[in-house]
Design goal:
about 180 residues; alpha+beta; seven-stranded antiparallel sheet; three-stranded antiparallel sheet
């Protein structure tokens, strides 16, 4: 085991790995909405459709996800940088500053003006790993809200595709 003082800082490595930006949302059992910006998202399996998100241990959002048994993955579109920054800020009134609505019995609030696509997920497993928890969620519904390019994050800044937009035609059938 490497002593903690000698462990490498992986932040520069991950800054060089651009990714899409999502806001993970949920409703606590009492109905209070919680959410946080997340770039740690990946597809685990197609059958059953399973997503993985990593949430900071000790965060109220993680606690609410565990208590409710569900969450929504709001994939932000390229014009939603203010929403990404708001949900990364920790502001307590964030849900008062964005448009949202709930859909169905499982999942969380849909940020319908900031997201291009939302996945509602039922929690399948939560595993603590260091200062985060890996949350596995089975997708129970996918809602495509608008055809817009995704918001990206890398090198400690937000951006979007510009050169590939004409070529892609927003073809979302890349996993078949």
């Amino acid at each position: 085991m490497i002593p903690e003082a000698d462990q490498p800082d992986i932040r520069p490595l991950m800054a060089g790995f651009p990714t899409g930006v999502a806001v993970i949302t949920t409703l606590a059992p009492g109905g209070q909405p919680w959410g946080m910006t997340c770039t740690s998202l990946c597809s685990v399996a197609l059958d059953p459709p399973t997503l993985l998100v990593c949430l900071r241990r000790g965060s109220p959002t993680l606690e609410a996800v565990q208590d409710s048994g569900g969450f929504a993955v709001n994939l932000l579109h390229s014009q939603a940088r203010p929403t990404a920054e708001l949900f990364a800020s920790g502001a307590r009134d964030r849900f008062e500053k964005v448009a949202w609505r709930t859909m169905g019995p499982v999942g969380g609030p849909h940020l319908h003006e900031a997201a291009h696509t939302v996945a509602d997920c039922a929690v399948e497993d939560v595993q603590p790993v260091g200062d985060h928890a890996v949350v596995m969620g089975r997708a129970v519904a996918i809602t495509q809200l608008q055809l817009q390019l995704p918001l990206l994050y890398g090198m400690r800044r937000y951006g979007s595709w510009t050169d590939a937009a004409e070529d892609s035609h927003l073809d979302y059938d890349f996993m078949s």
